[in-house]
């Protein structure tokens, strides 16, 4: 694993140097990484969310199945949709939970790839900055967690958005929890600036597939339901820029909902460990294609003309597939 992290960092540097002027004109605030697709131009990755529980609540079983699928698909990387470490994030960058819930759990050779991660609300209840620290990358070079950033994976561009600061109740009614808001307050300007950077980056993206990843759902029929702040502030940006998929965790389930007003598909993969909450509502909701209350994960396979997204349960069984295609040269 030594040096594993170095290659994309060097690529990022080359990318940054090569496109320095372009970058400074586009999105100064969102850090960009280049992650090359496969030699045939295709890309595949797994998505997991809400997982870090030292192997308990079927985390290890899900990890085992992820390893098998990752090998079969020869994945490029893994995406974590946040709530990486329960119950309250990491205490600091030396917290043993990092190795006990990550390094020692996702051990398959096929999972020794980059893990691009965002923070969830539970991560903000600990030392949020610890998860962003290069110290963790020295312990396990797979790990890359930032608040908001962009991965250019050639056939797709993936925009990671820090959604916890959008949610007002964490600031006004924390329910006894303490959140690490260093670098976040004042909330309003943090969110406004983030949306501005995202919008600019989306507007200028020319990738065939454009995917936005956040921790909180925009649309969900699970326990937490829709996140109203994201419906109001983030969704219009995604609709206006014609993104393909919004991927999130937070609700401990797997689900696929189609937007009723645009082509955006909402995909929840937040079933990395504790699940079976059993308080689902709105199962007759318009646009709902699939909902599963138990543990599992998701895979995404992309090429220029097709996207194939599969949802797996804890035994590795495919429960639902979204298969969509695009014309190579869309008519104008
Ligand atoms: Zn959450």
Automatic annotation (TrEMBL):
Gene3D superfamilies given in the database record: 3.60.21.10
Cofactor(s) listed in the protein's UniProt record: Fe cation
Keyword Membrane included in the entry's annotation: no
Reaction it catalyzes: a phosphate monoester + H2O = an alcohol + phosphate
This protein's record includes keyword Transferase: no
Enzyme class label: hydrolase
Cross-referenced SUPFAM superfamilies: Metallo-dependent phosphatases
Entry protein name: Purple acid phosphatase
Organism from which the protein derives: Quillaja saponaria (Soap bark tree)
Lineage, broadest ranks: Eukaryota, Viridiplantae, Streptophyta, Embryophyta, Tracheophyta
């Amino acid at each position: 694993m030594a040096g594993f992290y170095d290659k994309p960092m060097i690529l990022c540097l080359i990318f940054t140097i090569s496109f320095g002027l372009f970058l400074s004109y586009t999105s100064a605030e969102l850090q960009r990484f280049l992650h090359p697709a496969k030699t045939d131009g295709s890309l595949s990755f797994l998505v997991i969310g809400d997982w870090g529980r030292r192997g308990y609540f079927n985390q290890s079983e899900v990890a085992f199945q992820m390893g098998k699928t990752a090998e079969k698909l020869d994945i490029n990387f893994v995406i974590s949709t946040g709530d990486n470490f329960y119950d309250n994030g990491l205490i600091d960058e030396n917290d043993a939970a990092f190795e006990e819930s990550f390094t020692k759990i996702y051990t398959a050779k096929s999972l020794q790839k980059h893990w691009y991660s965002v923070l969830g609300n539970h991560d903000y209840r600990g030392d949020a900055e610890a998860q962003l620290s290069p110290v963790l990358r020295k312990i396990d070079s797979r790990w890359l967690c930032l608040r908001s950033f962009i991965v250019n994976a050639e056939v797709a561009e993936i925009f990671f958005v820090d959604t916890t600061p959008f949610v007002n109740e964490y600031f006004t009614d924390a329910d006894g929890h303490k959140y690490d808001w260093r670098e976040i307050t004042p909330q309003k300007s943090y969110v406004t600036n983030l949306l501005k950077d995202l919008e600019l980056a989306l507007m200028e993206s020319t990738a065939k597939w454009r995917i936005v990843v956040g921790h909180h759902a925009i649309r969900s029929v699970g326990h937490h339901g829709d996140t109203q702040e994201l419906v109001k502030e983030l969704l219009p940006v995604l609709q206006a820029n014609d993104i393909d998929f919004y991927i999130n965790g937070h609700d401990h389930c797997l689900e696929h909902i189609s937007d009723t007003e645009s082509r955006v598909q909402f995909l929840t993969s937040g079933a990395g460990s504790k699940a079976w909450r059993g308080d689902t509502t709105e199962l007759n909701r318009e646009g709902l294609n699939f909902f599963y209350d138990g543990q599992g994960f998701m895979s995404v396979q992309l090429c220029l003309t097709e996207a194939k997204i599969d949802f797996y349960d804890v035994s590795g069984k495919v429960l639902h597939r979204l298969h969509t295609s695009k014309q190579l040269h869309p008519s104008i």
